[in-house]
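name: query_chain
kind: protein
chains: 1
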Amino acid sequence: MSSGLGATAIPVGLSNTAPRRARFTASIGTTIFGAFVAMGLLIAALGGYGLYVLQAAGGFVVELYDRPLMAINYDRAASLDFAEMDKEQLRQAAAATDRERAAIEAKIRHLAKVFNDDLAVAAARSLYDDEKAAIGQIHDLVARWNELRLDTGKASANELATLAAGIMDRFDLLAELATGHSFVQRRKVVSDVAFFEYTSAAALILALLLAGGITVVLVRRIVRPLREAAAIADRIAAGELQAGSSGRSKIRAKRSCWSTPMTASSSPIPGSRISFRPWRRSSPAA
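structure:
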């Protein structure tokens, strides 16, 4: 014969062990600090990319203006130097006195030195092999012209004029090559600048999206709970004493980790969703 003891109610949910979900909890200070760190990294990334764009722009200036365009300028300068040398050679041939011819010779030597310097700078600024080959041909032809000029017995005035015309033709070819290559380099620079414009716009949009995401996280984890707590405090101050109980119930409900929902039934706790079942301990038979 079994004697029953008083009925004890246990929650049904406690009969099965439910796995609890791990939740990351952080204090308000930690959350705000993390948000500031994320915004700081975002600003640093944008600033670093802006610095990279500025450095690339400086490289564009060097590659476009300091190389092909400067090569064109020095090509033209060398061409003018040789034209001046050829003109002085004609004056030297028509000079009447040795003193005048000596003065003209000194001027031609000075022009030759300036010519070699300008041609060397043009070769250093040139980026393409065909330009450098044309410059080398001009250098050899001018050296041949100068050699014939100094030895009047080897060549006549017509031969010097023909050689000088060939040198000027080579200068025209060099100018055409340098101009064409400068346009190619310019198109490359324009394309690179357009690429940096698109990537900068994409980086700005991405930064705005990340900043918006950080703002949403701050609102959900800090602003909204503080607003709810302030509302509960206002209700308690107004005399609604049940507000504190309901507020704590909301907090406990948010922190609950039950894996399965519990059906509502008769419960001593009003509004609770936990159902209870009677449990009796059986005594051994008499």
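note: The helical segments are 28-93, 98-125, 129-150, 157-237, 242-255.
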